[in-house]
Amino acid sequence: MKHINAILPLALLLLCRAALGNASHHRQPLAAVLPTSVVKNLAKGSFLKCAADLTGGLPLEVWKSSVVLESIERRSNTKASSSRPPSSFDILQSIVRERGFLSLWSGLTPRMAEGLFSGSVLLAAKEQIHTLLSDYASPMLSKNAGLNLPPSIIGFLSGAGGGAAQALVMGPTSLIVTACVAASNSGDEDVSALKVVQRIIKERGVIGLYRGAPAVAARQATNWASRQGFTEFVRPRIPIEGIAGELLAGCVGGALSAWNTPFEVARIESQSQIVDGGVEKEGKSLVTTMCDIVNERGVGGLYVGLIPRACQACYQTLFLVCVPRLLN
User: Fold this and answer.
1) Which of 117, 162, 299, 314 would be 125's cystine partner, CB 3.0–4.6 Å?
2) How far apart are CA 326 and CA 130, in angstroms?
3) How buried is 175 (Cβ within 10 angstroms: 0-12 exposed, 13-18 middle, 19+ buried)?
């Protein structure tokens, strides 16, 4: 796992560099190096991702993470684990009552920084892959092999490519947000994104910011493959047309994408340990973490926080799948 965590960010960086070709060797404006459509998608992705997080995406992330962290805390607390576990809505009420409504925006700074880059990478990558598949690969397959790629398959593939490309920036920022939420849940008010970053780099080096990176990569690839693919699959089957039909397809596609919640639970479990001083330095692999959760809490333990996660998936699908289509 140490080698995977070290290779993943480097591989993604090289992939991005290769995709840009020799652009880095020429001191030209971005618009002169990249096609206009890519530049527009980079700008739209940044704006839409930040808008989604600021208006509701981040509160849903904090709610979801708090639900999973509460489950982890109960598991380590024998007395608490014997009582009835609080529901997702109980935890949401507790967050607002005890820490205030604005606490739902914990980790806003790293989240906005992440949104500027991850949103642009996601939208530009998945739209370019979608264009390549629909305009070039599909006609070529149809002509040479008599096969047509249905929109849902193109959606799954383009979404997976865009989601995987996000892992380069999603790893560090998702860890920071999770660490901030975990520290806040434990009553540590003297915590900030900057302090979390400084401590991680001091204790583990820059590579420590990619703790849980395999889970992040698996989550993001399956996230956007499912959100894009299911939305494409559902869209022609919805009897409602126009904007209402597009938004309804996005809600259904987003909700169905929550099937990969186990990856998210494993990611939070792994990254939340970064706030514990006694955690082993190497951490656990994704598979080991998921197996431990099943052994200790059953299969249902992998689906903790399913309700807030489904809500968050619907919300982000509307912003980053449906809105770009409507704008086009």
Assistant:
1) 162
2) 16
3) buried
